[in-house]
Design brief:
The structure is a single chain. By secondary structure, this protein is an alpha/beta fold. Helix content is 26%, strand content 30%. It has 13 helices and 23 strands. Strands 11, 12, 13, 14, 15, 16, 17, 20 and 21 form a nine-stranded mixed sheet that branches. The longest helix is centred in the N-terminal third of the chain and has 15 residues. The radius of gyration is 25 Å and the shape is elongated. The model has no long low-confidence stretch (mean pLDDT 91).
Amino acid sequence: MHPAVENLYKAKEILDELNLTFWLEAGTLLLAYRDGKVDETDTDICVFDIQTVLNNLHLFENVGFEVHKIYTHPSGLATELTLKRNNIKMDIWTREFRNGEGWWLSFDGDKYIPHHVDEKYFDTLGKLDIWGFEWNIPSSIEEYLEKIYGPNWRIPDPNWRWNTDPFCIDYDYPIEGPELAVIIKTFERENVLFRLIESIENIPRYHLYIADDSSKFSEEKEALYTRLTEQGHTIVRLPYDSGLPAGRNACMDLVTEDYILLLDDDFVIPKDFNISLAINKLRGNVGIVCGSLRTLVGDVAHYEHTLKIEKRRLYKLPPDNGIDLGLNFFVAKKEVFNDVRWDNRFKIGGEHLDFFLQLKGSKWKVLYEERFYAYHLQVENNTEYTIKRDRKDSWPIFADKWDIDGVQEHGGGFYDYREPW
């Protein structure tokens, strides 16, 4: 076995152990498919989730790989890991998926070279049987190779230059990362809102949309809103107690960005916030990726379920190959909200289940990514907030809308929505 192929085998064993999908890429892919050969000095593979690779570098080091270089773009959105073993280089890349395109950067010193091709080549990977094993490759492989190497890809070109010649290079393509619309609905809890706004600076690029239907605005909050407005963010002031759905929908009416991050005002964004973990899963008809919420001591809140309505009961069941219901902490494609909105008849209570039930009946899928997380820090609520938060008058509306009597919790009791508990 050639040492370069042995390196690929060793990497495959680790990636399989980590339950990660990888495929042959770049020159390794071309030589393997076209010539049945391996580059004797350099191999290239690609993974959807390079963060898990970076978190487990010790597994590669345990089998003789040395970390040669980790290239990252300042936005944190593009990464290339270079390892060495048997004096042969192995590059492990990732792809970023935005607006139907899979894109990546090559690093030529301090120069970033953007490439992109249609994401369809990665939605379902093809197979190549070589070197005694079946390897993943992009689908529609000959079409894909033409997108990278041009129409003459079948003819070896000794003058090929990786940093200038790929047909998929596009210097006009934005490499700074997608700008997010960050939607926050707040009500009577300005102290937690201040805390959240301070933590949002951990997000690389964002446009804030804050909907506020509080009864009063302190001087401190007015000063905050003035500063945010001057920075180009959007504050939506609503009539008192307009409700959670009305606030979110009012923000959605103004959004121009392609991706939306939904937050509650008592969340806190962590310093290692990684929006790419979620955005990279927004491919095809995946419209929403829900994250997890943690406490400061690391406890994780789970709310992943599949939903089923049967005999006038809504059943919340364990997840099975995807979810129908997640937390109200998610990243979504803007297009989702052309089909699904929050129901303005609700103030609070029922709007969450209603939104995800609408999604279940649409073309959009929901996924869950636990490593995409924020902190949910409970605070002592003021009396006005508590009174409004604990009311149950929206639940009969929810029950009538979906023609059910209540919900059967997984492993729990039955909640009668027509006579709220």
